[in-house]
């Protein structure tokens, strides 16, 4: 976790970059995973 509650994750297609999400965005993403809102490829 970054200062201010932001979350950084590595871009698997471009490892030189990181994606940064606010704590609210990350919480919404995790909640979506828990309720199976995303389709697996």
Automatic annotation (TrEMBL):
Residues in DUF397 domain copies: 3-34
Q: Which InterPro entries match?
A: DUF397
Record protein name field: DUF397 domain-containing protein
Taxonomic lineage of this organism? Bacteria, Bacillati, Actinomycetota, Actinomycetes, Pseudonocardiales
């Amino acid at each position: 976790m970054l200062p201010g509650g932001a979350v950084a994750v590595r871009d698997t297609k471009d490892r030189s970059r990181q994606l940064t999400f606010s704590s609210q965005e990350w919480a919404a993403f995790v909640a979506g995973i828990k309720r199976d809102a995303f389709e697996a490829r």
